[in-house]
Sequence to fold (338 residues):
Amino acid sequence: IPAEPLFRSLLCITSVSILFSLFLYLLEPQLNLIDGTPYLYIAFGITGTSTLLYLSNYLIGKGRVVNGMVVASLCQPALLSILLLINQLVGISDVTLTLLIQLYCLSFFCVSLVLFLTGVVKAKKYLVKKSDDNLIFSLSKVFFVTVIVDLIFLYFPFFLLGYYHSATDVAYYSVCLRVATLLAFVFTAVNKVFAPSISLSYINNEREKIKNKIVSCLLIIIVSGFIFMFICMFFSKNILSFFGSGYVDLSELLLLFVLFQIIASLYFFIRTVFQMTEEEQFSKNLDLLLLILGSGCSYFLVPEYGAYGAVISLISSLLLVLILSATRLVRIYGFRLV
Fold:
């Protein structure tokens, strides 16, 4: 991994993380967020999360898919579990929400720091031409836009809820979103396993293989999504009861968020296909359109309808972009719809 782009990426990630934490701190009086939110830890957490994903994608890009998935999915939860176990054994403090946020952010930061230092040591073994360096940085801009758009699209309704409604509405939004996000593990696994092979098939001009892989991935996402929705339909109250008795009546909101996650997984996969097949500029334009539509719908729906308006704004804007992206995919690869 080239040392210079690595340092530049880390500097950009750290700067954005600090600015975002400062933004939260300045808007605290207007936002109904958690009391005593540890903003410094949030900065550490965002930096760690972004760096961890950066290094994970590098490993996957080098063909070390299993190592990349372990880095992204197992290292941080393992360290978090160890820290919670140590806290319980030593009896340092009760496990409050604030403490959980602190340990969650610190675990991300510590794992990413160790992996980053390991990467720096290995980076000294490689020499990269300036032209290659510029190409890497140029392509990274597209993915940087993607990450920023995803964050704003997902959390802009969250801040509107905090501004126009109570902390209870923010909690409803957050809990249902987190439960629905469990489905994203399927998309993450599919994406990390199939994305490199799609890129390789594209390089070798194997269009039929690409089509077969796309169909297989879409079927996995759709089937997994509806199985998860079926589970939530019949066991939503049991699932939501883990968060407290005040959440058991949010079955309809949870199902809407699951529907949103299914649509999001389909769109994000198609976007990944575009990014792996030299259609990254088109995917970037779709992301910008998604940001405009999502922000506009949230601005009009959230103040009036609260958490339900937030999820409806997410679904409606994402569904339109999904239709546009699917239409483009059909035109490129000539899928038969019947």
Observations:
- The mean pLDDT is 76.
- Residues 280-333 form the longest helix (54 residues).
- The chain has eleven helices and no strands.
- The radius of gyration is 21 Å.
